[in-house]
Amino acid sequence: MSTSGLALPRTALRVEARAGGLPLGLIFGGSGLLGAVLVALLHLDHLGMTMCALKLITGIPCPTCGGTRAVGLLTRLDVPGALAMNPLVALGALLVVPWFLADLLLVFRRRALDVSVTPAVARLLRVGVVAALGANWLYLVLVGR
Questions:
Q1: Residue 27, domain member (yes or no)
Q2: What are the residues whose beta carbons fall under 8 Å from the beta carbon of 38, sequence distance 6 or more?
Q3: What span, in angstroms and rounded, lies between the C-alpha atoms of 67 and 76?
Q4: Residue 15 DSSP symbol
Q5: Angle at CA 36, nearest 5°, toward 59 and 100?
Q6: How far out from the chain centre does Cα 84 lie?
Q7: What is the rounded CA–CA span in Å between residue 98 and residue 106?
Q8: Of 33, 49, 107, 124, which has fewest CB within 10 angstroms of its CB?
Q9: Does residue 7 belong to any structural domain of this protein?
C-alpha cells in the first residue's frame, strides 16, 4: 500500500531471491544433471529399441519420445540435433540450466529464486504449456519419431 492509500499495481511476473525458499532450480537441475550423466555414461540414448509403452502398443510416439536421445545430444553439445530430436525436452533442459545455476549460487546464502505471476499470467502459462505439448506431439508424429 502506498502512502496515498492506493494499492500498488501487481507486476505480471516477479522473480526474486527469497530467504528460506525451496531451491527448485537446484532440485530440477541436479536431477536433470544426474540423468544426463547416466545417459552419457551408460549410452542410454543408443539402446536400439524403444522404451516407450505407448509407441510399443500403438505405434504412435508419446510427447516425450526421443527425450533420452535429445538429452544424449545435449551432453555432446549438439543443440540443433537435440532440438530436432525432441524440441520440448531440449528446450526444457536448456531453460533449467540458468535456473539451476542461479539457485546454486543462492543456496550458499540460504536463498532460492522465487517466481510469482498474476492469476491471469498463470492461466496463460497453463494454456501455453498445453499448446506446446500438443505442438511437440504433432511434430514427433509428423517426423515419425
A1: yes
A2: 44
A3: 14
A4: E
A5: 120
A6: 16
A7: 12
A8: 49
A9: no
Give the list of residues 6+ apart from residue 22 with CB closer than 8 angstroms, or none. Answer: 112
- DSSP class of residue 133 equals H
Cell numbers at residue 87, please?
Answer: 524440441
| Predicted TM-score (pTM) of this structure | 0.80
Is residue 12, in this structure, part of any structural domain at all? no
DSSP run (H or E) holding 85: helix 79-85
Measure CA of the first residue to CA of the last residue in the chain; give whole Å.
Answer: 54
> Are 87 and 136 a contacting pair, CB within 8 Å?
yes
3-class SS of residue 115: strand
5 pLDDT higher than 80: no
Kindly indicate the confidence band of residue 114, based on its pLDDT and cuts at 50, 70 and 90. confident
Domain that holds residue 60: 21-111+118-142
Q: What is the predicted pLDDT for the residue at 10?
A: 60
What is the distance between the alpha carbons of residues 33 and 26, in angstroms, rounded to a whole number?
A: 10
Per DSSP, 11 falls in state P
